[in-house]
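pinging the channel bc i need a second pair of eyes. not urgent but kinda urgent?? the chain im working w is below, pasted from the shared doc
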Amino acid sequence: MRTIQYPLEAIWEEITRRPQMDNATLSATVKSVLDDVRLHGDEAVKRYEERFDHVSLDTLAVSEAEMDEAERLVSSELRESLQLAHDNIHRFHAAQQFEEITCTTKPGVRCWQKSVAIERVGLYIPGGTAPLFSTVLMLATPAKIAGCREIVLCTPPNREGKVHPAILMAARIAGVNRIFKAGGVQAIGAMAYGTESIPKVYKIFGPGNQYVMAAKQEVSLHDVAIDMPAGPSEVCVVADDSSRPDFVAADLLSQAEHGPDSQSVLITTSQRLLEEVEAELASQLAVLPRRAIAEQSLANSLMILVHDTDEAIRLSNVYAPEHLILCTADYERLSQHVVNAGSVFLGNYACESAGDYASGTNHTLPTHGYALAYNGVNLDSFCRKITFQHLSAEGVRHIGRAVEVMAEHEQLMGHKNAMTLRMNEVTKNTTE
């Protein structure tokens, strides 16, 4: 990890800028695959599954027999862990349910808002080297609470044409309706356009590699909504002399093992801690199974020494991390000054892993600085708010003239006329 000592505020944005990738070739590849899936449906999806996942599929849908088989293959300990995580995620997201409020803005003018579930949502769950069965719970659980009528899940199969059993077990626990063997860009295209087997959805959720992210952004321009723009995963740890170097190093590595383009940032007020974390990183990295991936990630990562924790939190807000760990002695005070972050972990014992799996908060979060403007997935992500209004004759009397005047000044006479007709009717009925 590169070390920067006491950087001037003028260069904070520069030093916290994420590594940039040349996506020109990537975009062309993504568009080509998406067009193929849009035009050729299942046949294209199966062809790309053979090309990228090295499996020949007769059917894309996961059968009930495969679901039952997965349940037998998952250990009781993992099943119990999945259930515990689901229960906590359910409890936290159920507490977010919208309560309808009716407001009378003027006598006779009543307005209210209703929360309505998105009818059909698509979840993308990566397989590959780290099958993210936890993400099934994070996405399907709030979708179910929200009342989404149909939850469609796509995930890549292995070379035997099987989906990881823990993914299927998590899907059964969370109540997913339909599961398909499709990964990568072809899965995003299938959910965006619909194929003979995979239904078109109205919003796509879920993480993925750079190709999946590019595909989500491409289809969001014309065809379907997505949860949020995203880049590689990241963590920022703010630490001081009271922090545990072994904990800090473990948190940095837990992020680094996600992928070679992930980023870990340590901001600390302590030179001693910085040096001890470096030593811990070396020893913990040596026994990490995903060492090669983590090493590549750490090459793009930073250790920044600052004067005090107030400076540290200001720098963190400039970085706007996906995950922010505040493990300083004054973490409660600092937490009040967090304005840009996806999810925040407070104290020495609140590791990012807790939120990734089982504390109850959602781990689908804005990355690449999007925490400046986006929040993570929550119950509202699966809903739309529809506004209603009712006007009585009294309501027309109270706001009608204002509507006429504003419409006239915007030179929208049809708008004015729609209200004028009603005002004339109200006046006529009043005088009769």
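so The chain has a mean pLDDT of 96. and The two ends are 83 Å apart (CA to CA). — does that match what u expected or am i reading it wrong
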